[in-house]
Amino acid sequence: MNLVRVFLRNMSQQAKYQPLKRVGLIGVPFEKGQKKYGVSVAPAALRSAGLIERLKEIDGLDVKDYGDIEVPSSERPVDVDNMAHLPLVSACNKNLSDKVAQVLKDGRVAVTIGGDHSIGVGTVDGHYKVNENMILIWVDAHADINTNKTSESGSVHGMPVALLVKELSDYWPYLPTMDWQVPKFSIKNLGYIGLRSVDKYERLAIEKYDVPAFAMEDIEDYGIHKSIEHVLQRLDPEGNKPIHVSFDIDSLDSLEAPSTGTPVRGGLTLREAIKLMEIIHATGRLRAFDLVEINPALGNDSDRKRTIEAGMSVMMAALGFSRRGMTPRGVSDLPVQTYHKDK
Length: 343
What we know:
GO terms for molecular function: arginase activity; manganese ion binding. The chain is α/β, with parallel strands linked by helices.
């Protein structure tokens, strides 16, 4: 009987919230949150590979390309230890936050193409301005919840979650140029999928605040369906909150997506990632989706094509592409021809 109730509740929720069919695409050619060249060209590479045309093939999807946000090219030095290129990261994310908020106010799903994962500060901040009850699903091999005191690299792409959540605001020094961003998002509305390379202080934060986190070993035990259903149930038991997914391509196994800066073996299969996004799409509540850390400058031509194709496949699943096939636009019925046997 309990299973029947859960099934009926899930069916009623899916009927209540229909997926938005309007999408706003934002490019963020930014790479200063990490140390390798190339991730900044990902928006251009994805567009060149036909991303917009493929998205428009999804039945009924209205796609508007808002172009690339302005990315600053120069910075003034600031006195903050172990936090490389903070002024550039800050300026980029401020512009991005404003753009994401605009797309959402236009009634569209905000789809952001990075760039490195430091841009998650801007996408989540912009989403929170519009939907304060949002929940965040961070799909990543890494937790990205280091501060400048706990980070081993000093790269901000490992710090965006810690910059966003209000529970960790007291662990930061004063950050010049970041006055525009006030941490208001609660860690109670955060969940992880795909973790497999977590620093010890990150693990401490996840355990201290009881963040629902399904690492790869958990996904192996329970499967991707039960894993994301558990996270959604924990964060949103009533099933009515807007969802933001920040998807790092390194959450995929490096055989699936080799052209990324911090690849880790043993990750999600592409099939698992597509299923994950199909489940989230079916809730009807996806309002923002980030795709980050694709680096076309790494690997050979085959690696680049495989990684870009994987990223596009995950994004298309998030926005309603069906592996069962799509009906052709403007066609409601197949022609029927009657055959008569010769007498």
